[in-house]
Amino acid sequence: MKIMLLAFILLTGFTGFTQAQTKPAQATPAKAKKPATTAATTVKPSTTAAPTKKDGTPDMRYKSNKDAAKAAPATTHAKKDGTPDKRYKENKK
Predict the structure, then answer these.
(1) Handedness of CA 60, 70, 37, 28 (dihedral sign)
(2) Which residues face 58 on adjacent strands?
(3) Phi-psi category of 82—alpha, beta or left, where left has phi over 0 and alpha has psi -120 to 50?
(4) Please, which of 23, 30, 56, 88 could form a disulfide with 77 given CB 3.0 to 4.6 Å?
């Protein structure tokens, strides 16, 4: 009888531990947060007269935009984001 009582207590104890580790289901779904726009993710509108998309970036379906993209950059030493690297003399002007 003691063994059955001990087995029952252990069984109910283990059941309680497993129930405590699961997350309860949410009644209402959480709203999706919009990502905050930062200066690095915003796109500056192009200053050319070529066709652009709604967000201001050049539309690459047009030849004039493709040619402008293939043109060499103004500086020979540029950072990954395209800005001139000021460690070089020709960019310090």
Answers:
(1) positive
(2) 52
(3) left
(4) 88
